[in-house]
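Hey, I'm writing a tutorial for new members on how sequence and structure tokens pair up, and I'd like a real worked example in the thread rather than a made-up one. If someone can provide the structure for the chain below, I'll link this post from the tutorial.
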Amino acid sequence: MRESNRTEFKKELNERFERAVVSFLNYPGGGEILIGVNDDGEPIDVDDPDEVQRKAVDIIRNNIRPQTLGLFDVVLDKTDDKEIVRVIVSCGQQRPYYIRKKGMNEDGCFIRVGSSTQAMTEQMIENLIAKRQQLSLYTMISPRQDLTFRQLRIHYERRKVDLPENFIDSLDLRLSTGEFNYAAYLLADENGESFRVACYAGNDKSDLVEITEYGYCCIITATQSILDRMRSENRTFALKTASTRLEKERVDSRALREAIINAIVHNDYSKNVPLVEIYEDRIVVTSGGGLVPDLTEKEFFECRSMPRNRELMRVFRDVELVEQLGSGMKKILEAYDRSIFEFTPSFVAVTFPFRGSFKKPGSKSDDDRMLHDDPVLEIVEAKPTVTIPELAYLTGMSPRTISRRLKEFQEKEIMHRDGARKKGQWIIDVRPSLVAGRQNKSSRRKSK
């Protein structure tokens, strides 16, 4: 390991830790501070890592301004059998961040330059102040002030996480004037925001079958309802054949879950609300607002974290809907390539195409390995009474394509239908490989 513009090493927690944290808060994409690593990048162990973690959290919360809740993680890692403390810092939206006791000046503001931490100039500070995001969940006033938070308390209790008596203030749910802000509005038992799940009969929006609203309640409750719906929509089918057991789910469930949570947490609620669309051949998850300002596509795909809504990020992490900062994108990119993402100034859309073949248990979730034989024949062999709609659903093909394939198989005497349409079954007469073999032998005899 070596230090870089994204990574800094520290043998121990010292007085320069604050400067490093501030520099990453002000640096697009953020970075990591590894405590228990020497200047050569060698882990040297941390004495009392639990105490180091606690002190690091206290320093960041109490000694740095503006508020940093939701912008950092402090986790314990093991490297070469040595325990180190990893502090993950995201770039904040209310830059410039500064050391509280020094103030917003050249003595208190720092930024990352290469592998070093440097003081910001007065001009740099003024430029960041001018670019500060004016509208945020913290600064937007709630359209209602008669808010209650029973559901939020229940979600914390289920995770056995203590929600302090003064949680309204500790979660930054009030404006400086004392009124509830928009973060409080989204987390309240009742609000006017709702997320939509739309289902279409075809591959475009011409035939809307159903649209369901999930919302008007605590955003955590609404999120879990959508995730439950997606688990139902993304059902896994299993069929047993003579040689193996075949399993199939429409899309990678872990990647889909992370995309939905990311869309809700990073959505620009001043413009739009997230939308999930289910088509015949894909699921599309859309969030409003485009990429977070100052975060490039390159940094996005490098899993650099820059939360748009740090208040939501804090709560989603508390109730374990979000793990470490940036971990959601890593899970998506483990299963799919970058082509599933579409960016515009107004939205970010993630398209998950339905898988067209089965996967074998134990294979990689992102590697839908094609079976040697035709998938339609594999299914028919496992379930002779299978219907055309079932075949279409399991293979990802259209019913018309399935009908054409079945007709072709019958014409080539590979299979035939035995019995009536509803109560009959398919009989496989010969595998396609044998037909090909016979044709090759026939061709060779003719050539002789």
